[in-house]
Amino acid sequence: IKGSLDERIKDLKFICLLNEKNGFYINNIKFGVVMEKAKIDKYKKILKSLEKIKEFCNYLKIDKDIELDNWKDEDYRKIFVWINAIMQKQTVNVPNWELDSIGSIEIKDLRFSVMTSRKEDTEFYINSIWDRSLIGKHSFKYENGNIEIYTNNLFSVLNKDVYISDDVDIEQMMECYDNYKLNDDEEILVNLQVLEVINAYDITKNEKLLEYAEYLLNKIVHFSSMSDVAKINLMQINKRRKIQITEEDTKALLDIRNRNNNNNMFLLAIAIIMENKSEINYIFNNMPLDEKEEFKKFPLYNLMIEILQQK
What we know:
Blueprint: H1 5-21, E1 23-26, E2 29-32, H2 37-59, H3 73-87, E3 92-93, E4 102-107, E5 110-118, E6 123-128, E7 140-144, E8 147-151, H4 160-163, H5 170-178, H6 186-204, H7 207-220, H8 227-240, H9 247-259, H10 264-273, H11 277-285, H12 289-295, H13 299-309
Antiparallel strand pairs: 1-2, 3-6, 4-5, 5-6, 7-8
């Protein structure tokens, strides 16, 4: 039995049906099929396992067909550990847990997102982060220097790995934000989410991620502390959509540059949006090393490399 998950389920169901009917008909002529009980029992066991994986994918709203030809026994062992943990609420025992409390699990071409909570030193409860019962049940703290921001919105603290997962649920995230009032300074977290989302888009090219990033930016563009950043990020989204900047955009960029003329990050971002290669090279090459390394984490860096490679 070879092929994708759906192909294997279809083939195994056909084999089981052949056995049940003792054969098949062509032009009213029956062709008998006799299978050994041990073999058909083996096929039924495989079918049951594959249907369990399919049920798991449906639960997570993963609609892609999983390629299984390169799966090994260890991959099947892993997937059933996570299926039992998420769907049957079994704890997972991991002596040296290295996964963040929010992250994604990758098994070959399948990736799904989880949230963990500790039961004991090496035992963990695992939930899909799209489990609606988690909404509002946990609090999170973001720290950066002297800044501390608190939120009970799970979707304000996700990372890129979640956004590139097969089960990413953009509708649920939008629904949550539609009914959510941002805490003090939480617009900073929302902008950080935008950067994670755009970075994920650069990997997956999933257009819905750009729509979600734009949705988030429209929620924070009216905050005075975020206005300039949000406008630049909206423009870098349009760059990815191959939409050229308008005269109004150019005026806005010049105004932003005048307000932030001592900030290398802003100056470089504006040069990238305006595709000024000489200015890009000058600013980036003269930035302190720590600023360079920080800028490389931003999706604008991906855009910068693309622009500099253009002839």
